[in-house]
Amino acid sequence: MKRQYFGTDGVRGKVGTFPMTADFAMKLGWAAGKVLGAAGTKEVLIGKDTRASGYMLESALEAGLSAAGVNIALAGPLPTPAVAYLTSTFRADAGVVISASHNPYYDNGIKFFSNSGTKLTDQQEAEIEILLEHALHHGIDYVSSDKLGKARRVDDASGRYIEFCKGSFPNSLSLAGLKLVVDCANGAAYKVAPAVYRELGGEVIAIHDTPNGININANCGATHLDSLATAVVQHQADLGIALDGDADRIMLVDHQGVVVDGDEILFMLASTAKRQGVLQGGVVGTQMANLGLELALKALDIPFVRAKVGDRYVLEQLKAHNWQIGGENSGHILLLDKVSTGDAIVASLQVMAAMLQSGKSLAEFKQGMQKLPQVLINVRVEGDAATILASEPVKQAVLNAEQQLGTTGRVLLRKSGTEPLIRVMVEAADARLCREMAEMIAGVCEC
Question: What is the model's pTM?
Answer without folding.
Answer: 0.89
